Amino acid sequence: MRTPMRKVDQWLAEYGESHRNPANKLLHWICVPVIVVSMVGLLWYLPVPQSLRAASPLLNWGTVLLVGAVVYYVAISWSLALGMVLFAGAVLGCLVWLQTLPWPLWILCLGLFVVAWIGQFIGHHYEGKRPSFFKDVQFLLIGPLWLLSFVYRKLGIRY
Question: Fewer Cβ in 10 A, N or C end of the chain?
């Protein structure tokens, strides 16, 4: 028997249960976007078929991850998915800019990825609770949505 998909409010509430400490929240505001950028950047360098690469220099495994995440977000909230499309554009812009630096993108992204995850675990140490993704790996996709939900509430946008 298939269980029904959780509603966005359920995901956000459950994620929020282990993200109440102010230090942990602050670290998540910094680290979650950095993890997304670094993860997409690391996937950017995995080989893709030449025919796909020829179609667009931005078509790679990193952008495939972003598109897949947006499709997942559409399934739980159209409104938040639209915001995540804007976030995905910002991620791509950030990666295009990072490529202009004198160091290889994958080295920058690997360093950012490690430092950001250390920050996440420090935040959860302050929180006194394990990261949500230990309970359900889907929470890795909910983190960015949780942050965006705060922006939406501040702007009075319904989701």
Answer: N
